Every structure is written in structure tokens, then in C-alpha cells.
């Protein structure tokens, strides 16, 4: 019987979605990525090997699974080909990878524009990865971008590139004083990309819907997270797509009623990369310790992540937006050996109590977290636990408090980096 499960991030990304997808992929037939680009990154450890994935779904580590890059993703062809080559070099087959012919392309001028626009913002820069993702989505919305299907047809590609080439060159040369791009260079590169990617390109909407009709199990893999959503996140410090449950519908070609379950991935503490409000951020030794113990450095950029206590105002907000049915709690082990832990349950804004994250960043910056304090646990206790009952009592109190405050069951609990370090809570 068909079962469609969506995995979404509930915070500012980096919650460990890749690990959860990898863990759940063994039960799935198809794994689908539906938004974002190579600005996202999933780190997965399997069989003692660490894999850093950016565009390819985490299900690729299972050779029998079909992996789909959906139409909502913006694709840098060179980055995708490099990722394919790296996986193949490690003995991971990519024969079951399919790329939507409707997905949009990240063009060479997008990367340049991303970097230059960030520079012009000065102190107001957004902290983007400078991978061209925002400008690619801008052109998509402006209806001037090129798509994957275009690199399979040289005549079509030439015509569509000519429509934007002169205008992009004027912007690059007259505004940012760049050397003009050569039309022939772009054409030559992208025709080569098209030839290499041709075996992977398909109508993935038809492919996915056929698998659903066949009764297959589908796993929808989230990238980034709710607080980075273009509509629901801390705008403008957000990504340019919709990493919420609704984004799977538009980005993969699946109907809302076809999604049976939404799993929200919650890191046991909170991190974010780049600028923007972060009410529970820690600026002390505890924050530094969490960063080092949790290896909190960006998969894509290597940038150190800002670290803070778990914020249930954020998780509660994400739960409502996504319709989260279950929580996958990750990196519980990172909080080990900290004598006193805190969880934010509400915000105090000028004497007013807030239960959900505000729209105004000015308001968010002035919010003071209201904390509940918990006794900690040791790493030895966590590492010994192979079931929920074996977890230390203080860790169970921490987990059960999350369930109570979010009115959502904690289903999976991450206690280490590997596949085997996940406890299933009945």
C-alpha cells in the first residue's frame, strides 16, 4: 500500500535531516528532493564512511532505491556532475538517480550576481552561500530562466539564452564591472553538461505518480527548514524556496492529500548559519562547547554555526505550519555532560508573552526567552542506551517535556552520528 512520508526541518536547518532520511530510506522505494539547490547540504555517516550530499537525495546510499531531484530544485549542472563523480568514486552507484526535466538551472551569471549583490548589501548582507540559488529563483519567478529540458535541445537552449544573455552581460559589466561572458563558452559548457546528464533526465512527475499508483513507499526529503522558508521564515534571512511540507507539492508534483505523514526533525538544541534573529543564542563557553561537540560547521560552506538552547516557540510554530505528526529528535548526545540544560517555552516581548514566532524581526530581536531548566546526563549513559527505557531518566524528562509542549510524539531519537545510533520510541 502506498505510503508517502515527508521529512521537514523545524528550525533553521542543519537538524540532521540527512541522517533521518538515510535511516528511513531502508523502508522506502523512492526518495525525492523537491526544493533548494547546492546551497543545502546533508552529512550522512554509513558503514564508517561520511558522505556530504548537496543535490542528490540521501537515499542514494541504498542502491535499490529510486532517487528523484524534483522540478522545484534549482540545479547547478557542474555541481551535480561533481557529486555524481564523487559518489561513484566511493563505490556508490547513481544509476537510480533521476533529474526532473522541469527543474531550473543555475547559470554562470547567477553565481556572480549572488556574490556581487551580497557585497552591495554591506552590513545588511544576508549571509548567502553565494551558490547562485537566489538569482536562479529570481529568474524563475521573472520567467526568464532556463530549465533542464533546454540543455537537451541545442536550438532551444540557444534561443532562450540569447533572450537573457545581453541583459545579464550589461548588468555584469556596467553595474559590477565584470569582463563580459562569452556566449560560446556558456553554450559549449552546457551542451556538454546536457550530454552527460541525459541518462538521468526524465519526466519525474510522471515517474513519481506511476510509483504511487503501483503502491510504492515514498520518502520526501526536506532541505533547509521552516525558519528559512521564503514566506514563513525570518525574512529576509531566508532561502529562496519553500522547505515546508507544502513545498513538496509544488516541488515534486504530488498532491497534498497524497502525503500521509509529516515528520519534523528537531535538533536537541538550536543552531543557525548566517544573520537574523536567534532568541536562544548562546555567546558563552556553553555555546562554544556545543559547537565543538556537535561539529556545528556548515556542510556546504564550513562556516561555524551559531548555537543556542532548544527553542520550542520555533518548533511549535513549525509544527503548526507543516502539520507535523511525529518528531525525530537528533543530537541528544551533544548535550551530554552539561550539568544544567534549558529549553525555551515562550518569549517575553515587553511584558507580553508570545507562544509563536513573530513576523517582525524587530520584535523578534527584542524577545527574551522564557526558560525551563533541566538536569543533564552523561555521555556514557546515552551511549549505553539501545532503547528508550535504557535512556537516563533526565534525558527522558527532557524528551517528554518536548512532547508535552508541542503536543507531538517524539518517535526517533538520535544518540550518535551513525545509522545504528537511533532509538525508535514506540
What does this structure look like?
It is a single chain. This protein is of the alpha/beta class. It has 13 helices and 20 strands. A 10-stranded mixed sheet has the order 9-7-5-2-10-1-11-15-19-20, sandwiched between helices. Strands 14, 16, 17 and 18 form a 4-stranded mixed sheet that branches. Strands 3-4 form a two-stranded antiparallel sheet. A hairpin with a 7-residue loop joins β19 and β20. α3 crosses α4. It is globular. The two termini are 22 Å apart. The mean pLDDT is 93.
Strand order of the largest sheet: 9-7-5-2-10-1-11-15-19-20
Count of extended strands: 20
Strand content: 15-25%
- Distance from N terminus to C terminus (CA atoms, Å) equals 22 Å
Structural class: alpha/beta
Percentage of residues in helical conformation: 25-40%
The total of helices stands at 13
Uncertain runs are none
| Main sheet: strands, sense, barrel | 10 strands, mixed
Mean of residue pLDDT?
Answer: 93
Radius of gyration: 22 Å
| Dominant shape | globular
SSE inventory with pairings:
Blueprint: E1 3-9, H1 17-25, E2 30-33, E3 42-46, E4 49-53, E5 66-69, E6 74-75, H2 77-89, E7 97-100, E8 104-105, H3 108-121, H4 133-142, H5 154-175, H6 183-197, E9 201-202, H7 204-213, E10 217-221, H8 245-252, E11 261-267, E12 270-272, H9 285-293, E13 306-308, E14 310-311, H10 312-322, E15 326-330, E16 340-349, E17 352-354, H11 361-365, E18 368-375, H12 379-384, H13 393-406, E19 409-414, E20 422-424
Parallel strand pairs: 1-10, 1-11, 2-5, 2-10, 5-7, 6-8, 7-9, 11-15, 14-16, 15-19
Antiparallel strand pairs: 3-4, 12-13, 16-17, 16-18, 19-20
Helix pairs in contact: 3-4
Amino acid at each position: 500500500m502506498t505510503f508517502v512520508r515527508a521529512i521537514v526541518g523545524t528550525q533553521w536547518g542543519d537538524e540532521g535531516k540527512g541522517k533521518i532520511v538515510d535511516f528511513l530510506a531502508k523502508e522506502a522505494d523512492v526518495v525525492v528532493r523537491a526544493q533548494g539547490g547546492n546551497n543545502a547540504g546533508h552529512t550522512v555517516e554509513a558503514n564508517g564512511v561520511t558522505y556530504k550530499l548537496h543535490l542528490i537525495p540521501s537515499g542514494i546510499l541504498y542502491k535499490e532505491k529510486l532517487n528523484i531531484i524534483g522540478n522545484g530544485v534549482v540545479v547547478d549542472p557542474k555541481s551535480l556532475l561533481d557529486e555524481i563523480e564523487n559518489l561513484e568514486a566511493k563505490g556508490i552507484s547513481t544509476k537510480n538517480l533521476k533529474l526532473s526535466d522541469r527543474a531550473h538551472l543555475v547559470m554562470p551569471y547567477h553565481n556572480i550576481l549572488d556574490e556581487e549583490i551580497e557585497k552591495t548589501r554591506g552590513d545588511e548582507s544576508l549571509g548567502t552561500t553565494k551558490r547562485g540559488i537566489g538569482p536562479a529563483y529570481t529568474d524563475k519567478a521573472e520567467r526568464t530562466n532556463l530549465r533542464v529540458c533546454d540543455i537537451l535541445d541545442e536550438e532551444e537552449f540557444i534561443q532562450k539564452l540569447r533572450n537573457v544573455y545581453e541583459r545579464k552581460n550589461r548588468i555584469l559589466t556596467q553595474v559590477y564591472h565584470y569582463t563580459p561572458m562569452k556566449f560560446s563558452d556558456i553554450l559549449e559548457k552546457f551542451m556538454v553538461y546536457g550530454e552527460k546528464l541525459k541518462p538521468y533526465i526524465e519526466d519525474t512527475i510522471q515517474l513519481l505518480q506511476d510509483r504511487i499508483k503501483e503502491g510504492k513507499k515514498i520518502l520526501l526529503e526536506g532541505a533547509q527548514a521552516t525558519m528559512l522558508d521564503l514566506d514563513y521564515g525570518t525574512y529576509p534571512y531566508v532561502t529562496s524556496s519553500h522547505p515546508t511540507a507544502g513545498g513538496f507539492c509544488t516541488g515534486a508534483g504530488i498532491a497534498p492529500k497524497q502525503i500521509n505523514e509529516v515528520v519534523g526533525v528537531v535538533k536537541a538544541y538550536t543552531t543557525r548559519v548566517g544573520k537574523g534573529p536567534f532568541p536562544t543564542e548562546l555567546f558563552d563557553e556553553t555555546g562554544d562547547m556545543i559547537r565543538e561537540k556537535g561539529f556545528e560547521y556548515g556542510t556546504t560552506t564550513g562556516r561555524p554555526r551559531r548555537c543556542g538552547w532548544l527553542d520550542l516557540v520555533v518548533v511549535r510554530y513549525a509544527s503548526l505550519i507543516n502539520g507535523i505528526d511525529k518528531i525525530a529528535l537528533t543530537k541528544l548526545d551533544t548535550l551530554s555532560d552539561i550539568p544544567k540544560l534549558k529549553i525555551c517555552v515562550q518569549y517575553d516581548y515587553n511584558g507580553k508573552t508570545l507562544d509563536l514566532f513573530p513576523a517582525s524581526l524587530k520584535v523578534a530581536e527584542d524577545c527574551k526567552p522564557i526558560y525551563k531548566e533541566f538536569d543533564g546526563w552523561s555521555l556514557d549513559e546515552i551511549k549505553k542506551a539501545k532503547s528508550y527505557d535504557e535512556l537516563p531518566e533526565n534525558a527522558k524528562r527532557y524528551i517528554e517535556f518536548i512532547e508535552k509542549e508541542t503536543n507531538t510524539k517524539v518517535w526517533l531519537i538520535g544518540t550518535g552520528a551513525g545509522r545504528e545510533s537511533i532509538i525508535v520510541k514506540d
